[in-house]
Design brief:
single chain, alpha/beta, Rossmann fold, two-stranded antiparallel ribbon, 10 helices, about 40% helix
């Protein structure tokens, strides 16, 4: 088993209300239940292509995106994008329909699992090749700054979050975009979801500096390491990074130490990771951790959390029914959306 990095600690966790805590819990459960249903549908032959699930990493998506302004701030994802889409508010129905290749999908059935997109929710897309989304996110951050400072649009204070994995941080686009973001003080947060494995390559074997957050220092930007299995810890550092970006103080690199509970994709037999390593991380399930915290702080009780679980399961079942009953894209629209269209 690879050497484990110590769990980073924060001086203090940002205060949380009952309503905020339940919202975080509901968002994380939505992501977990959705991904579990995707696995079921995939193995039943209802879903095709490559499907990369997010189980175990929910605290990262929820902690960051729920610290942003829904429908206003921008989010750019990777091929592991289902839960990011759900966190920004894309309805589970439309995400599931996209995975079924249906016309009612958020990408109209053309994107599938790895290419979810929603202009309405400011989701700038999922990308199949690592690092592809970072320049797109950089562009979104640049236009926000340009509209505000050059065109005098005081409402253009949007922040952009770019999500990517540890494997991407050895990619040239990562360094180029960090450099540009720092040079122009862009309102962007680079979120590294370090789940320790880039497909089958262990992170520590692939980079000369395994502590990714330290790479930010080269560009003169803050680099923060956080426990990616603790949604409240992620939320705390994300809130600070969002505030900095919105105030015009530039970018932040956040390295979230997390773990995927399933293989790289549903086609991955997951034989490279040791049983001991998996059990170590499974014991740190972020959803259970938050549930225990909320109960310990008397912000809720087990029965209320069970009621949320039940409600979310109904949402997921409805999403599957909607996807199954939705129409296939019409063949007459084969060449639509190749080029931009007038509104």
């Amino acid at each position: 088993m690879m050497q484990e990095r110590a769990i980073p600690t924060l001086p203090s966790i940002a205060p949380i209300t009952r309503e905020e805590g339940l919202r975080l819990y509901e968002d994380m459960v939505l992501g977990r239940f959705f991904e579990d249903k995707c696995a079921e549908m995939y193995y039943r032959g209802k879903m095709f292509g490559f499907v990369h699930l997010y189980n175990g990493q929910e605290a990262v998506s929820t902690g960051v995106i729920q610290s942003m302004r829904p429908g206003e701030d921008y989010v750019c994802s990777t091929y592991r994008d289902h839960v990011h889409a759900l966190s920004v508010g894309v309805p589970a129905r439309n995400v599931m329909a996209e995975l079924f290749g249906k016309a009612t999908g958020c990408s109209k059935g053309r994107g599938g699992s790895m290419h979810l997109f929603s202009a309405e929710h400011k989701l700038l897309g999922g990308y199949a090749f690592i690092g592809e989304g970072i320049p797109v996110a950089l562009g979104a951050a640049f236009q926000s700054k340009y509209r505000r400072e050059v065109m005098g649009d005081a409402s253009a204070d949007q922040v952009t979050a770019a999500f990517f994995g540890d494997g991407t941080t050895n990619n040239g686009q990562f360094f180029e975009c960090l450099n540009m973001a720092a040079l122009w003080s862009l309102p962007i947060i680079f979120v590294v979801e370090n789940n320790k494995w880039a497909i089958g390559m262990a992170h520590e074997r692939a980079t000369s500096q395994p502590e990714i957050y330290k790479k930010a220092s080269v560009f003169g930007m803050p680099g923060i390491e956080v426990d990616g299995m603790d949604v409240l810890a992620v939320r705390t550092v994300a809130q600070e990074a969002v505030a900095r970006a919105r105030a015009g103080e530039g970018p932040t690199l956040i390295e979230c130490l997390t773990y995927r509970f399933r293989g790289h994709s549903l086609a991955d037999p997951d034989e490279l990771r040791s049983k001991t390593e998996k059990e170590l991380w499974l014991a740190r399930d972020p959803i259970k951790k938050l549930a225990n915290y909320l109960i310990d702080k008397q912000l809720t009780d087990a029965e209320e959390l069970k009621a949320i679980d039940h409600h979310i399961q109904e949402v997921i079942d409805d999403a599957v029914k909607f996807a199954q009953e939705s129409p296939e894209p019409d063949a007459s629209e084969l060449y639509r959306f190749v080029f931009a269209e007038d509104e």
